[in-house]
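Lecture notes, continued. The same structure-token format from the folding unit now serves as the input rather than the output. Read the line below as a description of shape only.
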């Protein structure tokens, strides 16, 4: 079920334990070959595929399409909001959902820059709403063991605009992928403990702007991204999302 495609009357009749999905994305540069909407399109893809799989068991909210992307502002087209603004926006939406009686809320994140602030939201909203289940999932952390087996570009290969995001976009919106502009990420590494990618998180956080880390805005190697791999990633992630939905429904508060 899609929240804003329902009438007020229809929505009022939906069971209040129905999990409500809020996709948290971004509008930012993704190298020369992927569109600014990459994170939004990927997040919405997973939410829509979940909806196709279990249409009567989830309720999908409108996407938050601009996230915390200040580290990408050196690149043209990037839009960002502050952490405080992001927190207030998500809080207000979630509080509206809770006001209407819903008890299970899933924050579906598709942008790395939203992870830390998303965890703050889970802890804050969870504490303030003890009778509500608040869950945040970041798509590349789902099915991580299975995703590891798909990684052909090795360590550092599945970062921003790299192998996995390129593969997903070839599946979701191939007309927006500029294959003639694909190039490997131009990384500048610092400390071994601060290096990582989507599957291999760093041991410690160390802030640098994106342009300081990679002059072309790409992390990893998008040349390994394929349509078939995009389909496999999608299936794995959606299957794990379904498991989370099923588990949340067993928790009574």
């Amino acid at each position: 079920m899609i929240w804003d495609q329902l009438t007020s009357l229809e929505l009022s009749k939906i069971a209040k334990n129905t999990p409500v999905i809020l996709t948290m994305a971004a509008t930012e540069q993704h190298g020369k070959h992927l569109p600014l909407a990459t994170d939004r399109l990927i997040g919405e893809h997973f939410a829509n595929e979940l909806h196709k799989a279990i249409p009567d068991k989830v309720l999908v909210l409108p996407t938050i399409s601009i996230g915390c992307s200040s580290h990408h502002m050196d690149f043209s087209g990037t839009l960002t909001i502050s952490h405080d603004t992001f927190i207030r926006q998500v809080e207000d939406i979630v509080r509206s959902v809770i006001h209407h009686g819903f008890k299970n809320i899933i924050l579906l994140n598709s942008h790395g820059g939203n992870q830390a602030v998303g965890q703050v939201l889970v802890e804050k909203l969870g504490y303030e709403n003890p009778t509500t289940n608040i869950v945040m999932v970041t798509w590349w952390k789902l099915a991580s063991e299975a995703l590891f087996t798909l990684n052909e570009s090795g360590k550092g290969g599945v970062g921003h605009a790299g192998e996995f995001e390129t593969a997903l976009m070839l599946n979701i919106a191939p007309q927006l992928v500029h294959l003639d502009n694909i190039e490997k990420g131009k990384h500048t590494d610092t400390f071994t403990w601060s290096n990582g990618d989507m599957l291999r998180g760093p041991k410690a956080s160390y802030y640098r702007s994106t342009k300081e880390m990679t002059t072309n805005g790409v992390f990893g190697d998008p040349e390994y991204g394929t349509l078939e791999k995009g389909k496999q990633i999608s299936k794995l992630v959606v299957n794990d999302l379904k498991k989370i939905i099923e588990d949340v429904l067993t928790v009574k508060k």
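Point for the exam: The radius of gyration is 18 Å.
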